[in-house]
Amino acid sequence: MSASNAVAFRMWPAPHLQRVSGLHPDALKPGTAIVRPWGEPLLIWAPLGQGGTAAVNVCVPLATAASDGTLDESYLMALPRDPGVYQILTASEVAELRRQPGIRPLLQVVKLLNPPPGASAELAAHCRERLRQEGRLLAGMVGDPSFPVYLGRADEPLPHLVLSFIAGLSLYDIVGNPGLVSELGFTPAGWRLPWRFIYFAASKIARAVTRLHLRAQVVHRDLKPENMVVVPLTASGEAFFEVVILDLGVAKELVRDAEDLPDLTAVFGAAGATPRYCAPEQLIGSAVSEATDTFALGRMLCEMSQGSQALPDSVNAGELLEVARRPLPDCTHPDLHPAVRVWMQDLWREMTSFDPVRRPALAEVLRRLKHCEAMRMRGGR
Ligand SMILES: Nc1ncnc2c1ncn2[C@@H]1O[C@H](COP(=O)(O)OP(=O)(O)O)[C@@H](O)[C@H]1O
Ligand SMILES: [Mg+2]
């Protein structure tokens, strides 16, 4: 599609060009453009989510959009150079543009700092430092298919991070609706996820987290289905996928103890964080380690097999600590032979041991998952 066709519905000059004042992530509605001190301006395309400390939007890099025919380049040319936020399209114009067949812009993600209302200046500064750290850690993982690509960050006009957009299904949605795996080429097992999917997902996450530990020297600390995107890879015609891990927002560096940032999971526990996957050491604020991620992965493994009701859903740290002392439920997955079910429940119970020292290393988790899968295949189920 030529550039002139693409913008037939609105010719330049757009009457909406105006500087947005009172800069706040809430002002970044679809149709606003962020002019940054470096790189091309970003057009906000659609909201993605609002977490505890960040507002996340899908955006379109404007120079690229001008060259691929998404928008006439006059939109780009007329933007002022000084960093700021400018409204160049109305939200309904963006919606119309998104509906047009043939418009397939390059999508990126802009994660903007958004501390909770009433946050102190000190807390806001910590959040900004966390966003910076997230960028630095992701930059260290470049080339790894299990993490979004870091594309840059700046503090102007608002502190933000730019990442590649990961198109796929949230593991949270898949756990809540196992039928979605048919979109990935798998056959659901009744109301459960098929074991082959669980095996691939758990192994892929365990490998990716191991690489994160080794390459970036950090503990993720916030592994949960909401932070995993399952990306279909069906080029070979086989049911297959990649899992991309998001949100290094509260990752803990293992080698920079002296400069460590305060634990924001603790700070925001009361402000809506999901403590379902928090290891006891996180709940009580003692030292975290690689085993903290093993705990979260153990809970996810049990949840993928047994459904989300299998996990405690308390909001109270004291209660959660109590629950963490009790073993996770038995494995009843119909794809597994009873003997393999016992191995599997032993595995997720050991991974969620109260004492981190008793949790198996991820290499051991991978070995045991593989062994169970081999047994499942041999059992013909
Ligand atoms: N690179 C990305 N590609 C696709 N979706 C993303 C990306 N980054 C974030 N998201 C979506 O936005 C949500 C919030 O982003 P996240 O980084 O987890 O921030 P928060 O710290 O607010 O939880 C994610 O759960 C996911 O749905
Ligand atoms: Mg998140």
Walk me through this protein's architecture.
With 381 residues, the protein is α+β, with helices and mostly antiparallel strands. It folds into two domains: 14-164, 2-Layer Sandwich (Phosphorylase Kinase, domain 1); 169-379, Orthogonal Bundle (Transferase(Phosphotransferase), domain 1). 36% of the residues lie in helices and 16% in strands. The protein has 13 helices and 13 strands. Strands 1-5-2-3-4-6-8-7 form an eight-stranded antiparallel β-sheet. Strands 9-11-12 form a three-stranded antiparallel β-sheet. Strand 3 and strand 4 (54-61) form a beta hairpin. Helix 7 runs antiparallel to helix 13 (362-378) and helix 12 runs antiparallel to helix 13 (362-378). It is globular and about 70 Å long. The termini are far apart. Mean pLDDT is 87; it is low at 1-10 and 264-273. Magnesium ion binds at residues 51, 226-227, 247.
Give the total of beta strands. 13
Structural class: alpha+beta
Which CATH-level-2 architecture of the largest domain? Answer: Orthogonal Bundle
| Backbone CA Rg | 23 Å
> How much of the polypeptide forms β-strand, as a percent range?
15-25%
Based on CA inertia axes, which overall geometry fits? globular
- What is the chain-wise order of helices and strands? HEEEEHHEHEHEEEHHEEEEHHHHHH
Q: End-to-end span in angstroms? A: 50 Å
CATH class of the largest domain: Mainly Alpha
Number of domains: 2
- The low-confidence parts are 1-10, 264-273
The third-level CATH topology of the largest domain is Transferase(Phosphotransferase), domain 1
> Taking all residues together, what is the mean pLDDT?
87
The CATH H-level superfamily of the largest domain is: Transferase(Phosphotransferase) domain 1
